[in-house]
Write a structure and sequence with these properties.
With about 190 residues, the protein is an alpha+beta fold. It contains 5 helices and 11 strands. The strands form 2 sheets. Strands 3, 4, 5, 6, 7, 8, 9 and 10 form an 8-stranded mixed sheet that branches. Strand 4 and strand 5 form a beta hairpin. The radius of gyration is 16 Å and the shape is globular.
Length: about 190
């Protein structure tokens, strides 16, 4: 089912320089990463990659538009209830290193040199959003500044997510792809 121009205008935000439209609302709550990919594909939508998600958040954060500022707060604000979303990143280790698989595991590229240790409490959220010491794939480099965004490094066989709740915000790359829960959904994207 192709996304109509009306749906794009009403339910998505065009993110300049990314070639995507980003959903204004999280959907498919409670599904695993694999099931979410399947459901999105039926609608000709997909999950955002880490870099697309990072760029969208930064766009919302810097926008003068009150609606986009509200969307930014909805995704990132430290408060109850917990809100989490799938990101399109699956990690696979081979003899040649750790690989990043996106587009529901159909696109593979070697993971660039990034922070490979957990940071608790974390990395600097503003630096991550503004791409200061961040790879082209959207992952923090080893020298990123310290901050309050909890970071869980990529692990073989895991997927990525972003979450915010009363205990803080985190960007993680170590969840099992079968993981699901009522607080875990997706902000769908559509290619422009």
């Amino acid at each position: 089912m192709k996304v109509s121009k009306v749906e794009l205008k009403e339910r998505f935000v065009h993110i300049p320089k990314t070639g995507i439209y980003f959903a204004r609302q999280r959907t498919y709550d409670g599904l695993s990463s694999a099931n979410t990919h399947e459901e999105l594909a039926l609608e000709e939508k997909r999950m955002p990659t880490v870099e697309e998600f990072r760029m969208a958040l930064n766009y919302f954060r810097l926008s003068p538009n009150k609606g986009l500022k509200k969307l930014y707060s909805e995704i990132t604000e430290v408060r109850e209830p917990l809100r989490a979303c799938h990101l399109d990143a699956y990690f696979r280790k081979t003899e040649s290193g750790l690989w990043l698989l996106t587009r529901n595991k159909t696109k593979a590229e070697k993971l660039e040199n990034c922070l490979m240790g957990d940071k608790l409490p974390g990395i600097n959220f503003d630096d991550w959003l503004s791409r200061k010491n961040v790879t082209s794939q959207g992952f923090p480099k080893p020298n990123i500044s310290k901050g309050d965004l909890y970071y869980f490094h990529p692990e073989n066989g895991s997927v990525a997510w972003f979450a915010a709740g009363s205990a803080g915000a985190d960007f993680g790359c170590c969840k099992d792809s079968a993981n699901s829960g009522p607080d875990l959904g997706v902000f769908a994207v559509v290619d422009a």
